[in-house]
Every structure is written in structure tokens, then in C-alpha cells.
Amino acid sequence: MADTELARNSSLxxxxxxxxxxxxxxxxxxxxxxxxxxxxxxxxxxxxxxxxDWSRIPVPSxxxxxxxxxxxxxxxxxxxxxxxxxxxxxxxxxxxxxxVGEGQTLLQQADCVGNYVGLNSGxxxxxxxxxxxxxxxxxxxxxxxxxxxxxxxxxxxxxxSTGNTSASLAMYCSVTQMMKAIIFIGSGKISYGKLSxxxxxxxxxxxxxxxxxxxxxxxxxxxxxxxxxLVNSINPFRLEGxxxxxxxxxxxxxxxxxxxxxxxxxxxxxxxxxxxAFIELKQLGLIDRVPRLAVINAAGADTLYQLYERRNLRxxxxxxxxxxxxxxxxELDARKAKADTIASAIEINRPVNLKKCxxxxxxxxxxxxxxxxxxxxxxxxxxxxxxxxxxxxSAASVAGAKLLREEGIIAPSDRVVCVLTGHQLKxxxxxxxxxxxxxxxxxxxxxxxxxxRASFANRAVAVPNELDxxxxxxxxxx
Length: 478
Ligand code: F0G
Prior knowledge:
alpha/beta, Rossmann fold, 6-stranded mixed sheet, 4-stranded parallel sheet, 18 helices, globular, disordered N terminus, binds ligand F0G
């Protein structure tokens, strides 16, 4: 989208000094200019946040005022489901932000799935992020990081990825032709749907002999050495864009705050961004209550669950006990433990946004749960049967909501929003195996993951190529 067009159509300009980067460590508190490219504090190595001097920003006094932006959707800036909330992430001037039409998403009320979860009618909503241009929620954050990269004059941008980040980055690079994408993936760790996107969009694809956690370490080293702009969610600008997922949820609920937000947890960018969104909305007086947050790990990649629920790691006013974290990682190393789940998007053992997620859990009275691959695939089949469908990692949110309902932590009358992070077609291998009539195929893909049954399978009916037999089969099964 042409930047001149964006500039012409927007009245919002960003004055210098209203946005800055700030170290998350309260004992350090280092501040950085918005134009600096860092993924960690120079002084203490902690994560960075984007922060604002809200007193100098023309934020609407009520959230419902944002509806006027939507009515101006002929303006490219307001058409974007991210940038129509520009006043709530005003780090870049309107004429510099990049949009490819991200964030046109749907909050679907899903009674069939709600029934499966154990909720009363009308209480479950699915925030479907698969409608983004690259098919996952990543575009929300990527347009923000990409806009910052562009502000800083970057010519190359890199990420490590379990697939969706790389697809999103590759898409922004190819649509805008502004940068070259360099993506790092683990070997055999990325679904074909996502890999096919990155390859076709022309990204330089570097396959590391290792997993996502290995690729993440390498991409940080390489980006630093070669001065390449890093767009993983360790980049604080990514999270600014991802805040808007929550703004759109509130918008779809006519600005009523739900009781629960349930989200899969991988690198913990989403949960961190959602927490920051609610912290800021509360600070600005735009909401008067905050939803509870549930972050759902896959059982085969459950670092957050282990640290938060089992070892009691807490935000502790910005000073979590990092000895607990180091100790846990040492244990993983000693066991040579690698993340392992059918939900490949969240197959991550060392989440880079751990600390920010702790802040979100603290602010939103959060809980963390883990769900098995069996629970994920059953929930995914229910999501698909109830409508639009999702990829395996996304279904962790629904499986987690069901578990929390069974535990009595979520009440049947609670209003629950499960975030469906990625499109159903991103990762069809597990779906086809789950519904397969061929038990060898089922076992080959799912057996090693402890998935032993497909309770909600919709199996194809094999018939001879004969009219009578076909008619008999249809009458029998329909
Ligand atoms: N769901 C999907 C579909 C994802 O692709 C990811 C992360 C997550 C959930 C986890 O989100 O990291 O914010 O906790 N995918 C990353 C990637 C890691 O490289 O595409 P998170």
C-alpha cells in the first residue's frame, strides 16, 4: 500500500518524544529513542517495552469512538484492523506505517464448540485470526515491526520461526518489495502449508539442523553480527501490533470486557501483548475491569506451565526469580529434553517473552494449563465441525478452556473468548491423519504423539465406482 496514500488520508502525526523504548527491569529502567534497533537492553540485557507519554497523544475518550475510524474504511489506515487503532500504538507516523490489509478478523459466537467446552449457550466466542492475509495472527504484529524496520531504514529482516512468523514476514517483504526476508527454521519442524508460503514469497530460507529454540539462538547471533533487523516477538514493536487483537475482541463485544481470554502459549508474544493492551486500556480509563487470562501450553512444550504453576514463578513487580528459570533450563539440558508436540507452532521450550507474559498473568489474574496432543486434536475437530476450523496450535485454547471448565475455574455462565491463532489449511497433515480410514497413516503421524483415538473423526466412505453402491452409501450415511 502506497505510503503517500496513507499520509494523505490520516490526520494523526507522531510528535517526537511521545514514544520511546524502555527496559522492563525496574532496577535499570534504561530508556531508548524509538529509532534505535535493539531486542534487549544494552545495560542489563532485559526485554524492552514500547512506552508512550499518553498525555501528549489524542486518544479517544471512549473506546466506542473508534467505531468512527471503522466508518472511514475507505482510508487505508483505517481499513487495517491494526492501524485503525493507531492512537493506541502511536510509535510511527501515519505516513510511515505499512499495511497489507491485516486484521480483518471475526469474533464468532460458537455454540457447538461452547457446548463441547461446557459453557452455556452464547458464552463462547472464537476470535478467528486465520483471516489475516498470511493466514495467522502474526500479521498483526508483523505490520508493526515491519513499519518500525522501515522507519529505521532496514533493508533485510530476519526471524526464526515455527512457520507462521516466517510466512508473515515473507509476505510483507514480497508485497511491499521494501526488504529481503531471511528466515531460520528447524529441520522437519515446519508444516508444509507455512513452508510453501515462505518459499513462494521468495524468502531466503535457512534450515538449521535443530529445532526452533536452536534457530532462535542463531538468528539473534546472525542479526547482531550482520546488522539485520530481527522481527521475532522479542522485538517490542511486534507486540504493539498484537495488542490490537484484543481491541478487536472488545469492539466485536460492543466494548464489553469478557470474563476470560484463552490463548495458546508458544514464544508468549500474544499473551504478553494482550496483557499490555489491558494494562494500557485500564491506565487510560478506557476499560473499568480486566478479563482473566488463560495461557495454554502443549504438554510436550510446557515451560510456562512448569514455571508458573509448579514452581510458582511470578512477575514480582518486574523482578521474577530468574534462578528458578535457569535451574529449569539446566534440567531440560541435562535431560536433553526437546519440545515435542503435534502443535508444531507452539513447539517451543524457551519462550523469549517469558517475563512479559508473567506481567500479563499478574495483571489479568492469569492461569496456565497444559493440554495433551490428544486433547488438542479432539478440540480442533470440534472447532472444525462447528465452523471455520483452525490449525492444531490454535485448538490448544479450546482444549484449555474445556479443561478449566472441568476444573470449575471457568464457570458455565462465563463469557469466554478463545483465540484461534492460525488458519485450518496451514497444517493439514494432522487433520487428514485424524480423519483417516487408514490406521497406518493415523499411527505414522499421530501414534508417536500419544494420540490413540479420533473420537470426532469424519471418515471418508470408500465405495466402488458403481452407481448403485454410491447411492446405497449415501442413503446409509446421510
Ligand atoms: N499459534 C500459532 C498458530 C502460532 O504460529 C504461534 C507461534 C503461536 C500460537 C504461539 O504464539 O509465540 O505468541 O505464544 N508461532 C511462532 C512462529 C513461534 O514462528 O510462527 P506466541
